[in-house]
Amino acid sequence: MTESSLKPTKMRQSIHKVFINASIDKVWAEIVNTDSPRQFFFNGQCDTPGLTPGAPMAMRSPDSKYTSVVGEVTEFNPPYRYAHTFKFTTMEDAIGKVIYDLKEVDGGTEFTLISENPDLAEVSKTEKTMQDGGKFICENLKAIVETGKPTFSGRMILSIIKLTTWMTPKVALTENWSFEAIKKLHQEERN
């Protein structure tokens, strides 16, 4: 049996939806922002050479010292869908996928966050974290787009993250997650 045949071929999804009282273009602009930290995504700053399929991407701390998530852009269809592979740098789990879907509806935009993870017997730490984090992402994306700031609980969590950054494991240091390292990781996953 080869190593690649051990990889799961099915993916398990968790789906979170929220209605946002704003135009699809305004919601899209927040999701694909690469100029400032994304408060709806735990203050991660998206770093990428370009949001095009095949491009590496990384969610880094505002000071760029740490990288929490790495991936590769798989779809980019403005303003309807953005998708990328997804791996927490501090977890050994297999690479998953995150999809951001937007749909114009009466009075605003329906935002759907889909997290796909390998369908294994046990729920991975990554899958559990994304299930828990999906609600935060949807609620705070809605609040930021509609009011310009995260929810109260979102602001509290962002404050805690800022205060505990020094506790981040060294494996997440950005020096370990160059774009070349991210590409190599994905190439190894495909082989």
Sum up the structure in keywords.
seven-stranded antiparallel beta sheet; alpha+beta; disordered N terminus; 191 residues; ASHA1/2-like_C; START-like_dom_sf; globular; 4 helices; Activator of Hsp90 ATPase homologue 1/2-like C-terminal domain-containing protein
Q: Care to describe what's here?
A:
This is Activator of Hsp90 ATPase homologue 1/2-like C-terminal domain-containing protein. Residues 21-146 form the Activator of Hsp90 ATPase homologue 1/2-like C-terminal domain. InterPro entries: ASHA1/2-like_C (IPR013538), START-like_dom_sf (IPR023393). Belongs to the AHA1 family. With 191 residues, the chain is α+β, with helices and mostly antiparallel strands. The chain has helices at residues 24-31, 125-147, 152-163, 179-190, and strands at 11-20, 45-47, 56-60, 67-77, 81-88, 96-105, 108-118. The protein has a seven-stranded antiparallel sheet with strand order 1-7-6-5-4-3-2, sandwiched between helices. A hairpin with a 7-residue loop joins strand 5 (81-88) and strand 6 (96-105). Residues 1-7 have low confidence and may be disordered.
- Overall 3D shape: globular
Percentage of residues assigned to helices: 25-40%
The portion of residues forming beta strands comes to 25-35%
Distance from first to last alpha carbon: 14 Å
Based on secondary structure, the structural category is alpha+beta
Family: Belongs to the AHA1 family.
Domain Activator of Hsp90 ATPase homologue 1/2-like C-terminal: 21-146
Protein name: Activator of Hsp90 ATPase homologue 1/2-like C-terminal domain-containing protein
Pfam families: AHSA1 (PF08327)
